[in-house]
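Researcher: Sequence of Cytidine deaminase follows. Predict its structure.
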Amino acid sequence: MLVLLLLQSDGQHDLCRIVEGREGLLPGEGALSEDMLKKMISEADKVKTHAYCPYSQFRVGAALLTTDHHIYTGCNVENACNNLGVCAERNAMAKAVSEGCRSFRAIVISSDLCEQFISPCGGCRQFMREFGANWDVYLTKPDSSYLKMTVDELLPISFGPEDLSMKKLQIQNGH
Ligand SMILES: O=c1ccn([C@H]2C[C@H](O)[C@@H](CO)O2)c(=O)[nH]1
Ligand SMILES: [Zn+2]
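Model: Prediction complete. Tokens:
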């Protein structure tokens, strides 16, 4: 299949758009192949159609690629008790963990926003961080253009599971 990647820059990040071109790996360590990225975007778009969002009418889909090459998808699932709603990204991650996989390579997020890249909420950024700071998050638009960021870029100076075992003050009985 032919895929071409057009690279632009906003000064900090590469803004890319899949148009048409050649098959193969992108330059750079661990980068997703164009084919895989296209498949991931298509999976995120597809699962978005299952979004249960009667309150927000805001559909989101996510496709998560594990380091052992499995893809787990998730959509947002809202609830009449507002704060019980779950984001697409978290659903995809929870599905992977439930199947025994905690090693993530990339997640692609899809929404219906035409003019901006869908940006994960703070809760999902922290949820991603639980499974490492150095994996990729692709923020997309419906035209398949995307912005690639790392979890660390989305959540700098983050708190993670390793911090719980760092040197602490000694306390007794909670004081
Ligand atoms: O990255 C995002 C942003 C929003 N939502 C969901 C949460 C809620 O159901 C709806 C509106 O915020 O969109 C996601 O699933 N992922
Ligand atoms: Zn979220």
